[in-house]
Amino acid sequence: MIIAKARAVDGPDQQFRSAEIKRRDLDTSDVLIEIKYAGICHSDIHTAHGDWGPVNYPLVPGHEIAGIVTDVGTGVSKYKVGDRVGVGCMVDSCGECDNCRKGEEQYCLKGNIQTYAGVDKYGEPTQGGYSTHIVVTEDFVVRIPDNITLDAAAPLLCAGITTYSPLHHWGAGPGKKVAVVGMGGLGHMAVKIAHAMGAEVTVLSQSLSKKEDGLQFGAAHYYATSEPETFEKLAGSFDLMINTVSASIDINAYLSLLTLDGTIVNVGAPAEPLSVQVFSLIGHRRSFAGSMIGGIRETQEMLDFCAEHNIAPNIEVISADQIDEAYKRVLASDVKYRFVIDTSTI
Fold first, then answer.
1. Residue 160, Cα to own-chain centre: how many angstroms?
2. Long-range contacts of 20-28 (CB under 8 A, 24+ apart)
3. Torsion over CA of 223, 224, 229 and 231, rounded to 10 degrees?
4. Domains of the chain listed by start with CATH number
5. How far apart are CA 201 and CA 172, in angstroms?
6. Which of 51, 63, 132, 267 could bridge 46 with an S-S bond, Cβ 3.0-4.6 Å?
7. What whole-number distance in Å separates Cα of residue 190 and Cα of residue 105?
8. What does the radius of gyration of the chain's CA atoms come to, in whole angstroms?
9. What span, in angstroms and rounded, lies between the C-alpha atoms of 335 and 329?
């Protein structure tokens, strides 16, 4: 076994503490990664707080992982020691179902194995990136392009692919009007990526406090949803809307902003249900959809796209001692725009 230092939490109301966790010895197809940086995702907070159901504590969150390969199994062909690599929200899947064969492992019919709060094929609980090392099968490791720094690369492994995938799937590009709901960790990436794809981007945020940032990231327009006239002015405007908010919103109001055949895609994951009126959909053949991350192939495609277009998240690098404070600040929307843990401080 490989012993890694980590930061773990023991319950929904507990603070993070120093810990040691066991990483398995390398199997034939495994890669050992020395983690350099780990992003903090809202999903980490939901899971650590038990918002999405029972959690097998102690828990080490983190599924935005960037690091360096330090060892490989005897059968590994894709990576070598010294490679710059990343790991996202999943570390394995069945590899045999229709979805896996299509390269959509995130929708594995048998359930993919999550990077943390899951159970691996050896029957052991998975622990995530708030740690110094991780062992992952090579098929779930991606290569980080040379012109993306490791600290900036980390959030791309969740925030980047979570927004790239629906924008790619629903055809964001020239001639398309795309709205991004929320200007947080996910939202600011959606703006940058949609703009790079060639779409006309509008940000819909509670206030105008981040307007200057939004326009700098590539948005053509920026509106405050707290102003009632916003919904009147923008009715029927957008071909595609990416909702990045991890809290309950009035979906019906946002559906009214879609064009004929327009789609709103939820990538934020609030703990509470969202209520949709059927008439909000059938009036203009509108769609309300959801999207998870992306498959491994698409995640690599996203990284290469970001490298080509010089896209990187705006980050604030913190020490491991600041995780609890960072969680509070995320919940208070007090971060521009993603916290990244320097794992050398663990």
1. 6
2. 21/60, 21/127, 21/131, 23/133, 23/134, 23/135, 24/122, 24/124, 24/135, 25/1, 25/135, 26/71, 26/72, 26/73, 26/135, 27/73, 27/137, 28/73, 28/74, 28/75, 28/76
3. 70
4. 2-143+314-345 (3.90.180.10), 160-290 (3.40.50.720)
5. 10
6. 51
7. 22
8. 20
9. 6
Residue spans of alpha helices (H) in 37-128? 42-48, 98-101
Looking at the predicted structure, is the pLDDT value of residue 274 above 90?
no
Grouping H, G, I as helix, E, B as strand and the rest as coil, residue 249 is coil
Pairwise CA distance, residues 317 & 37, whole Å: 9
Segment 171-225, tens digit of pLDDT: 999 999 999 999 999 999 999 999 999 999 999 999 999 999 999 999 999 999 9
Averaged pLDDT, 115-133 = 96
What is residue 247's predicted lDDT score, i.e. its pLDDT? 82
Q: Is 17 exposed, middle or buried (CB count within 10 Å of its CB: 0-12, 13-18, 19+)? A: exposed
- Taking the C-alpha atoms of residue 63 and residue 155, their distance in angstroms, rounded to an integer, is 9
Q: In terms of pTM, does the model score above 0.90?
A: yes
**Short-list 197, 195, 201, CA closest to 177:** 201
Per-residue confidence (pLDDT) for residue 271, from 0 to 100: 75
Q: Across-strand partners of 337?
A: none
Structure-token match 């995780």, residue found: 323
Give the C-alpha separation, 96 to 73, whole Å. 22
The per-residue pLDDT for range 277-312, each reduced to its tens digit, is 999 999 899 999 999 999 999 999 999 999 999 999
Q: Which sign does the torsion angle of CA 99, 31, 315, 212 carry?
A: negative
Instruction: Give me 18's structure tokens.
Output: 């120093």
Band of residue 253 on the pLDDT scale cut at 50, 70, 90: very high
